[in-house]
Amino acid sequence: MNKRIVSIGAGLMMVMTLLSGCGEDGYRPSAVILPNHIRNITLRPFTNRTQFFGLEEKLWLAVSREFIRDGRLPYVNDEKEADGIVIGEITRYIKEPISYDVNHVAEEYKIWILITLKFYDRANNVALWEEPNMEQIYRYFVETKPGGMTEEEAREIVWDLFARDIVKRTIDGFGTVMGASERRISSEKPKPAKKPFQVPPSPY
């Protein structure tokens, strides 16, 4: 009888231990700490696969400012002086109306932007991680409505949101929860088989 009680007690302790490891926020991936030799960082200008000209420059400015403001890793402008290189591409920009006034004129829009992101260890010529579908979704009312804004003003908010997420992903390593589900990207083309890694040259 005593052995049974001890066994039940041990089982309860194991269950409590497992539950205690589950926070209110649920599962979070382990932090990916940057190697010690990554002492500074740079951000390559984004490429832009959408038909909307100039998005890449606005995003680059917001992210580079955020790296400088964060300050945990010195930011350098020259890739040849950088230990780590963040490389990104804007893959989608979708704007759609989501509500209308009584005259069937759109009064609220949603913009949805997807980017891919990679981080390269330049010294060892390896990719430390890749974030294929980092996204931001933002809703806003048109400027004629109270508290409304222009599309450009809404974009500026989105760039700032991306900037914080990209810095967090790079330095803290929790960005794997940011990617959009592949099921939502139904028209995405299959990716070709991976080739032996080489740091791609800058187009600039």
Characteristic terms for this protein:
single chain; five-stranded mixed sheet; 204 residues; Double Stranded RNA Binding Domain; 26% strand; 5 strands; alpha/beta
Record the SSE blueprint:
Blueprint: H1 2-20, E1 41-43, E2 47-48, H2 55-70, E3 84-100, E4 106-121, E5 126-141, H3 151-171
Parallel strand pairs: 1-3, 2-3
Antiparallel strand pairs: 3-4, 4-5
Broad shape: elongated
Give the domain tally: 1
Q: Given this structure, which CATH class is correct?
A: Alpha Beta
Strand count, sense and barrel status of the largest sheet are: 5 strands, mixed
Architecture, according to CATH? 2-Layer Sandwich
Structure summary, number of beta strands? 5
Low-confidence residue ranges: 15-30, 185-198
| Oligomeric state as shown | single chain
Give the integer mean of the pLDDT values: 80
What percent of residues are in strands? 25-35%
Task: Describe the model.
The protein has a single domain, classed as 2-Layer Sandwich (Double Stranded RNA Binding Domain). The protein is an alpha/beta fold. The chain is elongated. The chain has helices at residues 2-20, 55-70, 151-171, and strands at 41-43, 47-48, 84-100, 106-121, 126-141.
Quick description:
The chain is α/β, with parallel strands linked by helices and 204 residues long.
